[in-house]
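Before the break, one more example. Copy the sequence into your notebook; we will annotate it together after we see the structure.
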Amino acid sequence: MAGAAQRQSPKLSVGLFRGFLEGRPDEERWELVDGAPVMMAPPTLAHAIIAANLQRVLNEAFARQGLGLIACQGAGVNLAPPIEHYDPQPDVLVIDAATAAIPAARYAEQFLLAAEIVSSSDSSYVETKRALYQQQPSCRYVLTVQQDRFEIRVDSRPNETWSEQHLSVPDNELIISEFGLRCTISELYRGTALLPLRSGKQ
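Here is what the structure looks like once it is written out:
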C-alpha cells in the first residue's frame, strides 16, 4: 500500500534508489515508483493475514510435492532491463530454495510467482506492478488478491501466452497444478473479517 512519496528530480534509477535504502532503518518498507521513493504504509491486519495464509498453503504444497521451492514475504526482485524506475516488493514471492539459502540476499533474480494483496486504493499501482511482473521471463503466475472481498485474479503463463482467471466465490478453487496447489479461496481469507475464526477455535 503506497504511502508518502519522496519527490526527486530527475527520476532515481534502481541503483540510486537502493543506495538510498542503505541509510534507512530495516523496519521501513520502500518501493521505487516511477523514479520516486515511496514509503509503504504498514499493512492492514487483513492484508497480513491473507499474505500469511497464501504463503502457508504454497509452502505446504511444495512440501507435499517435494519441490525445491519456497514462498516468502518481504523479499525484493531484480527486474530485467530496461526497467529502470521501478523496484517493487511483492507481498508473496515464490523462488527457488537455493536462492533463498543465499546468505544476506535481499533480492531474487528469478521468481515463479508474485502475489499482491490489495485494496481499492492500491488498484492503479498494482496494475503497474502486475505488468512489470509479467515482463519477467521467469515469472509464471501473478496473483492479485483483494483484501476486502472474495476476489482473486490469477494470471498464468503455462506456455508463452498469459491467460487470466477470476475467482470470486468462497468455494472456488485456486489450482496451480505445477505447484501441487489446490485450495478453496476461502482458505486465504481465514481469520479476516470475511471469514472470522471463533475465539479459541481453529
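DSSP finds four helices and 13 strands in the chain. Residues 43-189 form a domain with the tt1808, chain A fold (CATH 3.90.1570.10). Try to locate both features in your own notes.
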